Amino acid sequence: MAEAASVRAAIGDSEFDRDTAVTLREPGVYDIDLSAGWTIIGAVNGGYLLAVLGRALADALPHGDPFTISAHYLTASQPGPAVVRTDVVRTGRTLSTGQASLFQIDEDGNEVERIRVLASYGDLGSLPDDVRTTAKPPVIPPVEQCFDPQDAPDPVPGGSAITDRLFLKLDPTTLGWALGAPSGKGEMRSWFGLADGRDPDPFALLLAVDALPPTAFELGISGWVPTVELTVHVRSWPAPGPLRVSITTRNLAGGFLEEDAEVWDSADRLVAQSRQLARVKLSG
Amino acid sequence: MAEAASVRAAIGDSEFDRDTAVTLREPGVYDIDLSAGWTIIGAVNGGYLLAVLGRALADALPHGDPFTISAHYLTASQPGPAVVRTDVVRTGRTLSTGQASLFQIDEDGNEVERIRVLASYGDLGSLPDDVRTTAKPPVIPPVEQCFDPQDAPDPVPGGSAITDRLFLKLDPTTLGWALGAPSGKGEMRSWFGLADGRDPDPFALLLAVDALPPTAFELGISGWVPTVELTVHVRSWPAPGPLRVSITTRNLAGGFLEEDAEVWDSADRLVAQSRQLARVKLSG
């Protein structure tokens, strides 16, 4: 990757691994210090949070890879201490199902639930190698012709720490919004990786599906688009190297919209699919 | 609708309403007798089960309409008594989030969890009327040129009670499988309604997304395709009249596939979107 560090970080020994690592407190209960490094305008990124919950469930369940994980976002998470409580719903030979919730202490000293997830885990390495994918990889210009989020004439107000930790190279044809000329199409495409060069794994895929600017920007909406619910299917262990992420919105109506993400790996495999329901909050 | 009963059933007073009605046993706990009328080859239909859980949550939460509901299917449900336990996760002004599980007693007298769902509810009637949908309704031939599932030369072995309760008129271009010549495309399209003429509501949409033959049939797979996880977004209260359902599979790989459903109402609105992850179990 063009901007990767000269020494690439390894899976298990990288910024992303350290910042999503959960510590077992007692059976099924994990502590985590949510890093301020994965925020955008002060809000902790939803994909980072999903990776944290995903790692807790990988420890609590007999299977280690998220196959399908659904998250409902309840209240806004803050950087700082949090606790993840897991519940094993069912264990099976091929799949196990678990539930997890992330809690934080609010300013009044009350424990508040931030996110609840339900997920089924398996072993991606055990899957047969058959592929009958009819979907085609997104066409994104070469990295050199794409743009960093920091290249925007109007950088995100309040700063966004997360962009320092990501390798994002946005397709210029989905960047009309940054020049004040949104295309009107609900599309966003980008190359995706981790800035320290760590290769992708299933947990990085949970991050990838929620890391691009909202498609709503290209629909001419400049407000906040908080996620209500996000479901990710991880379909294959990603090959090393940069990912391509394509996000599409086809139904903006009634103040809500869906964002469908596809994540393709360097071997041209569709390694993850996601859909989220988000609310449109117009800026005042 | 062509085959509707001469007197159309009304919402609240129909077969579907009676068969999904839950009875409050104690706060948050509901009894239901799962009807054998919504089975296919003996298995209770996943969309019918989702409607049952959806109705329990509508009672338990302060909001009545499912906006996004995610179900993980754990074990196969049987017709007969079941209990639904609900948990209010968070109540808000616009959205409330709840969890529900359906349990049955197995042959050994143990209580077994069949399905667990996580859902956020709101009030569809309160949504603004803005629509900026870029998706287009599926093109399905007129009802008279479409086919009942019963028209297949090889009717489903073991019978399928559910088809008697549905108004399904399948697009002949997605019925190659029924003639032994699957198209190789992961597509299935149909007109959809309830056989007694009851108009659709949000709970009928939960049924609609999982009522067509599996797209896997058109991919040449004749085995069983059990749902692992199903998430439905209900985006609008459906207009009266028949619905059009379009299901697409783009990624059959590693023994799993996704099914994406779109449900369009008679007013050409995209009223529901769903995605499920299903397992391919080849018949022996």
What topology, given as strand order, has the largest sheet of chain A? 1-2-6-7-8-5-12-16-15-13-11-10
Largest interface: A-B, 52 and 52 residues
Characterize the overall form of chain A. Answer: globular
- Write the CATH architecture name of chain A: Beta Barrel
Please, what is the oligomeric state? homodimer
Structural class label of chain A: mainly beta
Q: In angstroms, what separates the terminal alpha carbons of chain A?
A: 40 Å
- Quickly name the level 1 CATH class of chain A: Mainly Beta
Domain Acyl-CoA thioesterase-like N-terminal HotDog (chains A, B): 36-120
Domain Acyl-CoA thioesterase-like C-terminal (chains A, B): 152-280
Protein name (chains A, B): TesB-like acyl-CoA thioesterase 3
Short description, anyone?
Chains A, B: Residues 36-120 form the Acyl-CoA thioesterase-like N-terminal HotDog domain. Chain A has one domain (15-124, 139-279): Acyl-CoA thioesterase, double hotdog domain (Porin), CATH 2.40.160.210.
Topology:
The structure is a homodimer of 284-residue chains.
Chain A: H1 15-20, E1 23-26, E2 29-34, E3 39-40, E4 43-44, H2 46-60, E5 65-73, E6 80-91, E7 96-105, E8 111-122, E9 131-133, H3 162-165, E10 166-170, E11 187-194, H4 202-208, E12 227-234, E13 243-248, E14 251-253, E15 256-264, E16 270-279
Antiparallel strand pairs in A: 1-2, 2-6, 3-4, 5-8, 5-12, 6-7, 7-8, 10-11, 11-13, 12-16, 13-15, 15-16
Helix pairs in contact in A: 2-4
